Sequence to fold (94 residues):
Amino acid sequence: MAWKDLKNKVKRQLSDYMDLPGDIMLDLPKIVLVGNLQVFIENHRGIQEYNPNLVRVVVSDKVIEVTGENLTLRNIIPDEICVEGQISGLAFLS
Fold:
């Protein structure tokens, strides 16, 4: 077992034992989708790509891809990004 996998396993067990949210202990993204008009992404690492049809946001060791039409970045703060527009897809990329 790799060191990173062991470290994440211990964090997950500690999170479960202490009844703490996984997004805090494991540095996981928290994604809130409001209909197909807004998506809030917390615990991000920045924007990888942006255009009116595609937004790619880096989170921990993955990328979240938001696809749609007329996409705009509403808020960009250190802990959260809000994407608005006609959202048609949301995917995790490795």
The first strand starts at residue 30 and ends at 34. The beta strands are 30-34, 38-42, 46-51, 54-59, 62-77, 80-93. The helical segments are 3-18, 22-25.
